[in-house]
# Entry
Amino acid sequence: MTLEEEFSGPFTKKHAKDLPLSPCQYELFDSKKRLLYIGSTCNCQRRLGQQLKRFPRVASFKARIRQECVEARALEKLRCQSDRPPMNRRCG
# Structure
């Protein structure tokens, strides 16, 4: 697995189960490909599975795998502050 590995696709339970258990920074999109939410986690598979229930409007996702949680969180903060997605309550 490399630092730049990415996963993307429809936001479904099957796709969430196919994700690695690694840290990642992720983005959630609506059906028109508009960015709704940016997050990070130390366990990509578990967190995106949880987000399925939290965000029913989400149609697709993109996850960027990282080796360390701190890298995922730093990328989340940077992306969130620059893009200001509507479903993020705070960025940073």
In short: The mean pLDDT is 92.
